[in-house]
Design goal:
- By secondary structure, this protein is an alpha+beta fold.
- It is about 20% helix and about 20% strand.
- It has helices spanning about 50-60, 70-75, 90-95, 100-105, 135-145, 175-180, 185-190, 285-295, and strands spanning about 35-40, 65-70, 150-160, 195-205, 210-215, 225-230, 240-245, 250, 255-260, 265, 275-285.
- The chain has a seven-stranded antiparallel sheet with strand order 1-9-6-11-4-3-2. Strands 5-10-7-8 form a four-stranded antiparallel sheet, with no helix packed on it.
- It is globular, with a radius of gyration of 19 Å.
- The two termini are about 30 Å apart.
- The chain binds fe (ii) ion.
- Fe (ii) ion binds near residues 1, 2, 215 and 217.
Length: about 300
């Protein structure tokens, strides 16, 4: 994500070499080029990061922000050892609501604002990758009334993308008008990254003391890992890959990196706000060739 909008895929998990030996299919860290992640700092021009960081921190005060995460258990993308049952999941909360509570919930929505209860399973109707996105008021009510834990309390889409399966495709997408107005240096930075197509671009931040719940973004059969770059301009967000078999974390120690988002991953808690910029798309063939040449030996 999630970080944002993971669509659980129905299959028996990962294929390919494991970094961690034998275990259940899909629980290994598959990684990229046989390693948990690829440090992209040597390959990218990060000279603008200081001014990009300044722009983002100020810009986030000027735009409407969303939450994301909050339903990873319902989405079925959490490993057995990391289900964090102390943290309320909104899919589970919605399923437990009375008709009156559901009517209140729907009244807070943007599309179904008439207080009508949804037809079918409410846990499969609302939120990420579902038919009806949560409104800001619904997110806040789920948090305030039911204690739902949204790990990413700062979420802003520079290039909106509705469904996870479309994140690598650029057709019909562009930076929003608001993004162009508020984040021009960030957009210039993104445009010089080695992509031939960009299908998704967003900012994801965690409040002080929050952690990113361990999950994976998909579990489908893959011919190669999806192409994306995560950049943490401040270098203070510790993402880790989680090996469910070995019960081991592989922390990421780079300001710019690529990992296999079919692998379980999470973010360590820290006593301060942290954010990253994620860009999804298709790498240029030259960039991919260079990475393969340097890492496949
Ligand atoms: Fe994720």
């Amino acid at each position: 994500m999630s970080e944002r909008a993971p669509r659980p895929e129905l299959c028996d998990g990962h294929r390919g070499d494991s970094l961690s030996g034998d275990g259940l299919p899909g629980d290994h860290v598959v990684g990229i080029f046989g390693r948990p992640y690829v440090d992209l700092e040597p390959y990218l021009d990060l000279s603008a990061l200081a001014e990009v960081h300044d722009e983002i921190c100020l810009g986030l005060t000027r735009v409407a922000l969303d939450y994301t995460g909050g339903s990873h258990r319902t989405l079925g993308i959490v490993p057995a050892s990391q289900r964090d049952m102390a943290y309320a999941d909104y899919g589970e909360v919605l399923r437990a609501m009375s008709p009156a509570e559901l009517a209140q919930f729907t009244a807070l929505g943007e599309r179904l604002g008439e207080g009508r209860a949804p037809e079918g399973d409410p846990g499969l109707t609302y939120g990420e990758e579902r038919e009806v996105p949560l409104s800001r008021r619904q997110m806040l009510w789920l948090e305030f009334r039911y204690g739902v834990y949204f790990p990413w309390k700062v979420y802003f889409e520079l290039i909106p993308n509705r469904y996870w399966s479309d994140k690598s495709r650029s057709e019909g997408k562009d930076f929003t008008r608001v993004a162009r107005s508020v984040f021009p240096k960030t957009i210039a930075f993104v445009k010089q990254l080695p992509f031939s197509a960009i299908g998704r671009c967003n900012l994801m931040g965690l409040a002080a003391n929050d952690h990113g719940t361990v999950h994976r973004d998909g579990a489908r059969e893959q011919t190669q890992p999806d192409h994306f770059i995560t950049v943490c301009p401040a270098g203070n967000k510790t993402l880790f890959l989680w090996d469910e078999v070995a019960r081991v974390k592989h922390p990421v120690g780079a300001r710019a990196y690529w990992f296999n988002d079919n692998d379980y991953h999470g973010v360590e808690a820290a006593p301060f706000f942290r954010y990253s910029l994620r860009v999804d798309g298709q790498f240029t063939p030259e960039f991919l060739d260079r990475l393969e040449r340097d890492h496949s030996a």
